[in-house]
Amino acid sequence: MDMQQLSPQMYDTLVERKRTLEKHYEAEKLSLRQLCSDEKDTINGPRVDAEAQIERLWIDIVKLGLFLDNVTIVEDDSALEVVAVGKKVFVRIHGCDCEEEPDELEVIIDGFCDGCRDGVQVITPSSPIGAAIIGAKPGDERKLVLPKGLSRIVVVSIQNS
């Protein structure tokens, strides 16, 4: 796994997010214990759903912990002008057909979850787009493997998210 470079502020934010997830995990475990003592049917029902939710939460905590174990904190902002976790990145994706207009996309790279934040798509470094652009600088062009075929992706700009 390549070492990711993070600003001290982003590192602190991710450490705090991990602490919050751990507290939530402990609260969910207590709720599950109560549910187990109240529930008669242990094969179906809310207990099974709760166990699955707690397991997913634990997996997120472990992934974030592993990620935090493999980061380098960088004080010099010029070294952070690369695509990394915690960055908002504007990219252009050029399809296989050179005549198509490129798709423009703004994404936030997050260490362990994806979705949407403030109207911007959130992706992980292991997603196809994340894997293609991680470590890139503005102006860099990379290959992007998508279900519809091979494309090119260009990093236009990078900001702290």
3D architecture notes:
With 161 residues, this protein is of the alpha/beta class. It folds into two domains: 74 residues, Orthogonal Bundle (Helix Hairpins); 80 residues, Transcription elongation factor, GreA/GreB, C-terminal domain (Chitinase A, domain 3). Helix content is 38%, strand content 29%. Helix 1 packs antiparallel against helix 2. The longest helix is centred in the first third of the chain and has 31 residues. The relative contact order is 0.17.
| Secondary structure: number of strands | 8
Widest beta sheet: strand line-up: 5-6-4-3-8-7
Strand content: 25-35%
Going by CATH, the homologous superfamily of the largest domain would be: Transcription elongation factor, GreA/GreB, C-terminal domain
Assign the CATH architecture of the largest domain.
Answer: Roll
Report the mean per-residue pLDDT as an integer: 80
Helix segment count? 3
Q: How many angstroms separate the termini?
A: 23 Å
CATH class of the largest domain: Alpha Beta
- Name the poorly predicted regions: none
Number of domains: 2
